Amino acid sequence: MSISHPPIPNFVRSAERSLWWLAAAGAATSIILGVVALAWPGETLYVGAAIFGVWLLVHGVINLVQAVTATREDGVARALTAVIGVLFLVAGVICLRNLVVSLVAVATLIGLSWLIGGIAGLVAAFTGTYEAGGRFVVALLGAITVLGGLVVLIWPGPSLATIVWLTGIWLVVMGAMQLLLVFRHRPS
């Protein structure tokens, strides 16, 4: 005795096809962006720096609007939000006026975050409740992260170029894998 399934409505099939096309477009976009990053790494860095500057401007405006329109009575919090907004705006203008400054700022943020994260990993390795093998792995990861942070802080230009290359390779590989999966699951 076979069980018959009810027919799939047309709007469900249409939605499946639309989602499939969106997934295919996303995978293809990853591949294209990866190829662009690999073909023009310097230009990719400058575009990233410009986007970082715009991001700072947008967040500056958002903070200022929040400070002005906040309904809470806490004047100190509103003033602090406004100051942060102004700082974001100033930083955004500086970054957009000089993209090299923006690149140095991005490299510094990456280097500092890796350095601080690595130090935190080392501290956790020796103060946490890890078994001997786990302690070694956490300490090793912390030490590698500290070294990575120092490399980025000492040599920001080559580090950013390497990050662009690795990101380009990652985008191409991930996009190709996603595209493969999308075509394996093409709706009928």
Automatic annotation (TrEMBL):
Q: Per UniProt, which keywords does this protein have?
A: Membrane, Transmembrane, Transmembrane helix
Organism superkingdom: Bacteria
Membrane-spanning regions, if any?
20-40, 46-65, 77-94, 100-124, 136-157, 163-183
Q: Which InterPro entries match?
A: Acid_resist_chaperone_HdeD, DUF308_memb
Q: Which PANTHER family match?
A: PROTEIN HDED
Protein name, as recorded: DUF308 domain-containing protein
What's the source species' lineage? Bacteria, Bacillati, Actinomycetota, Actinomycetes, Micromonosporales
